[in-house]
Every structure is written in structure tokens, then in C-alpha cells.
Amino acid sequence: MPANLTPIYLKAEQAYRQATSLEEELRCLQVMLQEIPKHKGTDHLQASLKAKISKVKKEMESERASGKKGGGGIRIPRQGAGTVIILGGPNAGKSQLLASLTRATPKVAPHPFTTQLPQPGMMPWEDVLVQLIDTPPITPDFVESNSYGLIRSADLALLMLDLGEDDGVERCLDVWNRLQATRTRLGETSYLDEDDIGLSYTRTFLVGNKIDLPDAMERLEIFHELADFHFPEYLISATEKTGLETLRNAIYHALNVVRVYTKLPTSKTADLDRPFTLPEGSTLLDLAGLVHKDYIENLKFGKVWGEAVHDGTPMKGDYVLHDKDIIELHKIR
């Protein structure tokens, strides 16, 4: 990335990746263009941002002219502490994983192409929920068009490797190769390419499924010999629920969020049932904006109970939140 990108730029870039409408994309791109340092090292990225803004505006005009919203794609609203998309070839066990980690009830069958539309579910982790989205299978010849936007906006992708049958290795590699041939790719971290704002990478875990079946570890060795990527790897059996708690914990921690609880000045105790979740590095002012937009301009201070301060310490809006902080917000009267 170019040097000296501002925190506002980086926040806008993250919001752009997670945008669920063309209007949101345009707002984020405009902020990014405004915030990017203006020097020769960023000339290419500035041009890419301007081209992308022009393209989004044309798409918005086309929508208005046709009277349609969203360009015909499927938009699944973000919920919970983060969004994780499940990817794989036919019969890799994506729907079974969703069913085993959430309360969703996708159709699960031993034959391929059972999933035809994206299906969300909410995975519990301690006192928060994480959104998981099952997707139709990817093959060398086909990717459901809606999957691209879902992959780009996800915080994490789970690439399923079917270790239960010999074709599973090839099918997983097919998914990788098919996506790498597009502008929506899998990577070790999530980012937009600095030379091409339209080229997106989403952080990925490799999930080896069906380790309870014969010859699973031999197939895994073959996969390691053939694969040219090195994602964090988790071995599970979605049906037998082997390894799911390790995967569940890894998914949550990969989101890099903190939980914050709020307390009313008139109350002796905080609401510990439904924490707010914010990206690590977020400030008290960021939390205030989530509670109510009126706090953004009228925040006076917040009393904080947590590991980084003495209980009840008044802190200004730039205080960096810690996991399990309790915050009592006070407005200017």
C-alpha cells in the first residue's frame, strides 16, 4: 500500500469492501480519494479510484433508468461480529458445516449441487454471534455471480477441502484456480490491490473436511504436494463435529474485534447480554456513534471500567477500546 495512508482512508477502504449498495460504495470511494496522499507514488491508485467512482456512478444511473435496485444481485445484510463465507466444490460439506456451527437448517444431501442460493446462519461464540454464509459450489466452468460480492465483502473465507474422496483434492484446487482467474481472489490477508482498486483479496482459512473417513490424511498429503498456497489449516468432520470448536475459536479471533458493554448513568449494572463489537483499535467515539448519532457531536466523556484503567475513569473520545470494557457515555447538556 502507498505510504502514509490515513486512518480515515483505511476505515473507508474496509467499509468499501463491506458495502451492500452502490450508494455505500460511492461514498467510501469518494472518501478514499479525498484522503489519499497526493504524490507520485499514489498516482496510479488515484487514477484507479477515479475510474472506479466513474463506473459506480454509471451503474447507479443505469439502475435509476431501469427502475431496478442492486443490479439483480443478492445482498445479504451484515449481522453479528463479522461475516464469514463458506466456499468449496461440489459435495465438499459446506452446508453440513453451516448446519453444525449454526442453527440454520440448509438442505444437506450426499449428492452435489444441493445448495443453489447463498444461505446465512449465525454462529454463537461466547456472548456474540458471527454470520456464516453457505454458497453454491464453484467449478472450473461456473461461479454463481452473486458469490463475487459476498466474497469481497466477507471478513473471512473458509475454503473447504473434501478429504473423503479422491476427487476432493482436484475440486478444491479448481475453486482456487477459478477464483484466481477473476478479480475476486483468496489470500492470506484481506486487501485491495494498490495498483488496481477493483482487484480484491479476502483472508482465507483452508478447512479439510471428512477427516473421519478412510485415507483422509493420505489425500491431505497429496493436496499439500499440489497446492501452491499456504493458508491456516483446520481439519474437521462437519458430520461428526470433530475439530469444530477449534475452528469456531479461530474464526472469531480472525475477525479482530473487541466486545464492549454499555451502562446507563442511572443504572448500577451494565447490559452484559448483548455487547457491541468493533474492530480492534476503535475508539470511544466510534462506540458512541453506534449507540446513537447524537453522541458523535455531543459526547462529553465516557466512564470506563476495564483492564486498561481504574474502574469508572472518565475518558475522552480518543480512548482506544479494550475487549470487555464497560462504557458509560455522557453527553454535553
What attributes characterize this protein structure?
single chain, 13 strands, globular, alpha/beta, five-stranded mixed sheet, 333 residues, eight-stranded mixed sheet, 10 helices
Describe this structure in words.
The chain is of the alpha/beta class. The protein is 35% helix and 25% strand. The protein contains ten helices and 13 strands. The protein has helices at residues 7-17, 22-35, 43-66, 94-101, 145-153, 167-180, 216-226, 244-254, 284-291, 294-298, and strands at 83-87, 119-125, 128-134, 156-162, 184-187, 191-193, 196-209, 233-235, 257-262, 276-279, 299-306, 309-315, 325-331. The strands form two sheets. Strands 1, 2, 3, 4, 5, 6, 7 and 8 form an eight-stranded mixed sheet that branches. A five-stranded mixed sheet has the order 10-9-13-11-12. Helix 1 (7-17) runs antiparallel to helix 2, helix 2 (22-35) packs antiparallel against helix 3 and helix 6 (167-180) packs parallel to helix 7. The chain starts with 6 loop residues before the first helix and ends with a strand. The model has no long low-confidence stretch (mean pLDDT 89).
Detail the topology: elements first, then pairings:
Blueprint (H helix, E strand, L loop, with lengths): L6 H11 L4 H14 L7 H24 L16 E5 L6 H8 L17 E7 L2 E7 L10 H9 L2 E7 L4 H14 L3 E4 L3 E3 L2 E14 L6 H11 L6 E3 L8 H11 L2 E6 L13 E4 L4 H8 L2 H5 E8 L2 E7 L9 E7 L2
Parallel strand pairs: 1-3, 1-4, 4-7, 5-7, 7-8, 9-13
Antiparallel strand pairs: 2-3, 6-7, 9-10, 11-12, 11-13
Helix pairs in contact: 1-2, 2-3, 6-7
Radius of gyration: 22 Å
Shape by Cα distribution: globular
Helical segment count? 10
| CA-CA gap between termini | 43 Å
Structural class: alpha/beta
> Which stretches are low in confidence, meaning pLDDT under 50 for 5 or more residues running?
none
Determine the mean pLDDT.
89
Helix content: 25-40%
Number of strands: 13
* Largest sheet descriptor: 8 strands, mixed
